Amino acid sequence: MYVRCRSFITLIPLLALALVPGCDRGARPGQTGKLAPDFTVSDGTNSVHLANYRGRVVLLNFWASWCPPCIEEMPGLLQLHHDRPDIAVLAVSIDEDPGAYTRFIDRHHIDLITVRDPNQTAAALYHTEGWPETYIIDRQGYIRRKIVGDPDWSNPEIRSFLKSM
Predict the structure, then answer these.
(1) Could you report the per-residue pLDDT of 129-164, keeping only the tens digit for each?
(2) Which of 2, 59, 60, 165 is most buried when burial is the number of CB atoms within 10 A of its CB?
(3) What is the dotted CATH code of the domain comprising 26-164?
(4) Cis (ω within 30 of 0) for the bond into 156?
């Protein structure tokens, strides 16, 4: 019994170590340094064409109104949008329900550029499968960073990175 338990305890760290590479969806994806895939998304009310923002730093945020981390992130993203109007914050929602999307926009007073993409056509170009995910795109259209989850948009490191662009 003691030997079996000891073997199991030794196996746990090895399994955890084996799983770490699969969980690495952090700030340095394979797309970093590559030209951001261009897209046009129109939901009947709003339209976003990424190429129209060339020459500006872009925060491309994929989100959904039913996603708790997306909801938590939105106030910080809005504050960044207000603090740095020189940065184009493009929020692409994957909401399928247009009513839920509209209610969320109204209830949270979202005044940044947002569009609903229920077919996830733009997200597919970026291989995004988790929400929220944000891509920081430089003025020349290259992906410089990927942020997964609900970051603190007031974090000095993030603010400094954006300022350096």
Answers:
(1) 889 999 999 999 999 999 999 899 999 999 999 999
(2) 60
(3) 3.40.30.10
(4) no
